Structures are given as structure tokens and as C-alpha cells.
User: Fold this.
Amino acid sequence: MPQTFDDLLVRARSLKGDGRRAILGIAGSPGAGKTTLAERLVRELNGAGAPWVAHVPMDGFHLADAELDRLGRRGRKGAPDTFDAAGYAALLRRLREEADDEVVYAPGFERVLEQPVAGAIPVPPQARLVVTEGNYLLLGTGAWARVRPQLDEVWFCALDEDERVRRLVARHERFGKSHEEAVAWVLCSDQRNAELVAGTRGLADLVVTGAVLGA
Assistant:
């Protein structure tokens, strides 16, 4: 049966079955449409009623530029070791364990500043489904291996490669890079990360195709 966005809505709703909080992960290479899909799912699932779905991106766990400079990793910003993977896994575990008690605050990421922002995303007790998205949800190395056990399902965004690169270049330009700088970054740093993420596709519970992602 062809995959549609309505199919995804039905599948996401089914994750919240026994009253506990469920967590849906959306993975994919940079520029594959993870955030767009997550935001649309949250918007459509919440509808006009009381919000019961929250969006917690992985990007809030980027290390700050000052720390990347100290570690000598700023030129590889976006690679797996430029995130606080252990902190991200701990937050996901806390979202499960404290589902009925209190608001849990997650960090956000400011695209204009290219910096994480602490305490930017409140997840209230009434949020019974959390949608989280990022590149490395299926990565099995280091602290990233602690992430997958916290997720009920992981969907993988599989966008046509040319379209993915086009969108990624446009995004870098939108946030301040020249066209030449954007292309150079995408074909060097981003591409290495994209190839690493692509290798985790087979571990996903569901592959979301370009037809659903708007390609």
C-alpha cells in the first residue's frame, strides 16, 4: 500500500496505547526533512484540542562553540562527537520516568546564533507522545547507543539525494553563509555525516519516502 501522511498519523497515534508516555524518533541525514515532518506531525496530531504531543529536537544537545573550540572540533560541527549524546539519552529517559510528575525542560537550538539554548522547550505532564528528531538516533557507537532503547519507534527520512543537498545548501544560505560557503560545507562536513547516517537506515522501524516528505 502506498505510504501517505495520513498513514503516518495513524501509526503515530497508535504508539500511545496504555497511558504511558511514548517517544517517537525521526532520523535521517542533514537536510532530509526530519524537522519539517516532526513539526507537521505534532501540529496535525494536536489539532485544535488540548496539546498532547510535544516536539523535542536532538539539536539542543549541540556542544557550544566555546567547547568545540576547546576540543578542536568546531570545523566538524554536526559530527557525532560534537553533541552531548549522553545528555540527550538521559533526557529521553527522564521524559519516560517523569511523565506524570512535572514539566520537563529540554534545550533548544537557535539557528541564527547556531547555539544551544538551555531550558527552551517545556514538556508538560499532559504530553503523552514526544516526537524527537535528529541525525544520530540509530547510531550504535558510544553514548549514542543509549538513545535507541528509549524510543518506541524510529522512522527514517529517505529523501532523494539531489533534493536533500539542494535543501541543505539553501538552509545554510538562509542562515548567513554565502552560496560558495554553503556548498563547501555541505560537500565536506555535512556529507561525511550524511554518509554515516545513511548507514543506519536499515535499523529503522519505518522508512518515510520522498513522496511524503514533499520531494
User: Anything to note?
Assistant: The first strand starts at residue 22 and ends at 27. The chain has one domain: 5-209.
